[in-house]
Write a structure and sequence with these properties.
2 copies of one chain form a homodimer. By secondary structure, chain A is an alpha/beta fold. Chain A is built from 13 helices and 10 strands. Helices cover 52% and strands 12% of the residues of chain A. In chain A, the strands form 3 sheets. The first copy, chain A, has a 5-stranded parallel sheet, with helices on both faces. Chains A and B meet through helix 7, helix 8, helix 9, helix 10 and helix 11 of A and helix 7, helix 8, helix 9, helix 10 and helix 11 of B.
């Protein structure tokens, strides 16, 4: 159930993809009392999910047919590279379905939907949760508990489907952050995709370029800073390459700041500006964890919701009417 | 007690500084059965340690006088910036004492000892353990359990004191890595100081440059990659600035690899070379955690010990004679 004012809805959920995120979402939605079915391209995953008691259709086509018949919310939970194929199936089987995703890159997802399933009633989503693990077995119903869940809030989106996606997020234990697709992509480039890229650079400079002694000595700070490099590389690539326009300015900022630190270390020997700024930024983040929670009336215009997100608010449910 | 062949020695330990590392070392050495006393510049810390049952001298001078009288091993556990002052006291009170440190930068420590306490029988040390916390209250006797502990192994060091330091490491639960000072500093620049610098850059680019939305969305990958920015900035500065010559080439490698990734993303849109290299490097590190453990005869030449470390071996005790 949601944290604030729990959504009360019986809309069924059709999950396409049963990896870490899709598999956790299926579990969380079932726990919240929703009717849930799924499909997966992996026979092994299908067998494992069925053995755990979940309803896995024989094919994505069958899952989508049922979604059309029962007016379900379809959740795309496949890597970005697999999205066009699934969208073509959506267009063929359930062209006007209610559609969201948990793929992580919003502008690229929106453009793919426009290209491959233009009639779908699509509202993008992105739960800020995950681990370095992947696959059905790594999932859990509690993965989204207390997590922020971006729900795309660009003008012109279908308000009924927007409510469907928000209610799914709340039912999974998340808090809703309404954000425009480009704003979302610029933000996640900095807080997720850049950390992955820096982790790759650091792992290589330390463990590959540093030789046997560096490998032996690497512990706490190295271990945490490079943890995400345990993730399957193709998943990291799909998400970083899929957000090229968001990631480039973030990388440029990092190069600029690292270059400035290098110059200062080489010339004066001092790193105070860099380290003090990093310490302050981390404090800002600690403070932001107590983001003000709020509820909103069910038909609040999306522009007003975006304004709330820009001032750091997170939504926990509908204001009782 | 040590993990391999436990050291049997009764040499007393005099710890100067009772922060996270010094305080943990005092606890671990007491747990191992050693006689331990300490000094600290902080009256608050002295009171807290005494309340926990530890023997804290009235002054560093008194602690060092007792070290001279009882031929103790003196352990410097103060920030690098405080080292010269303490070394001048060593020279005044116990000029020829057995001396080691846990300060983290080896070449700078060695040079400081040469400058300020040239008669001390100094062998540098660096346990690879720590957290983002600091202070006496954050310490624990188990902090060094299974941790690698660098003991300087440059030619010409006093073999008796070398054995003292190795035995202290083993008694605290650590495994000894014999390495030359410059090799040590080059390695820790990559696996500890560069991670701190990149964490500072990332925290700033994400949480400061990214605005309110980025702050709200920052979670797993950001949190882990910037954890060390919770550390007190002056401790991070002392260690990074104190290893300037080791850190500069590591920063240059990071700038080169990040710049190459930037170029590839901008031109072809691809990041496979960067991400795959990072993933491979992290796998190398996982494999290195099962470093071969070995024992050595008590009077093995330091050059032979260094050769063992260069092939990834860690020492767990003396080979029984």
């Amino acid at each position: 159930m949601g944290l604030g004012c729990p959504a009360v809805t019986t809309r069924p959920i059709c999950v396409i993809g049963l990896g870490l995120i899709g598999g956790s979402l299926a579990r969380a939605a079932v726990t919240a009392g929703r009717t849930v079915w799924a499909s997966t391209a992996s026979e092994t995953t299908a067998a494992a999910a069925r053995a755990d008691g979940y309803d896995v259709a024989a094919s994505t086509e069958q899952a989508l047919e049922r979604a059309k018949a029962e007016d379900a919310l379809v959740v795309l939970a496949v890597p970005l590279t697999a999205v066009p194929d699934v969208l073509r199936q959506v267009r063929a089987v359930a062209p006007e379905c209610r559609l969201t995703d948990v793929v992580s890159v919003q502008a690229a997802m929106r453009d793919a939907v426009r290209a491959h399933a233009p009639e779908a009633r699509y509202v993008g989503g992105h739960p800020m949760a995950g681990t370095e693990e992947s696959g059905w077995a790594a999932g859990s119903a509690g993965l989204f508990q207390g997590a922020n869940w971006v729900v795309a809030a660009d003008d012109g989106l279908d308000p009924e489907v927007w409510a469907d996606v928000a209610e799914l997020a709340w039912d999974c234990g998340g808090r809703v952050v309404p954000a425009g697709a480009e704003d979302h992509d610029a933000a996640v480039a900095r807080i997720s995709h850049l950390p992955h890229l820096l982790a790759a650079v650091l792992a290589t400079v330390a463990a590959e370029d540093g030789g046997e002694l560096a490998l032996t000595l690497a512990a706490g700070s190295f271990a945490d800073a490079t943890r995400v490099m345990d993730t399957r590389p193709e998943l990291v690539l799909a998400m970083c390459e899929g957000n090229r326009s968001g990631l480039l300015p973030a990388v440029d900022d990092a190069l600029g700041r690292l270059g400035a630190a290098r110059g200062s270390l080489a010339s004066t020997g001092g790193l105070a500006a860099t380290i003090n700024a990093g310490h302050r930024a981390r404090e800002l983040w600690h403070q932001a964890k107590s983001a003000p929670e709020t509820t909103v009336p069910r038909h609040t215009p999306l522009a007003d919701l975006r304004a709330l997100a820009h001032t750091g608010h997170v939504l926990t449910g509908w204001t009782p009417s």
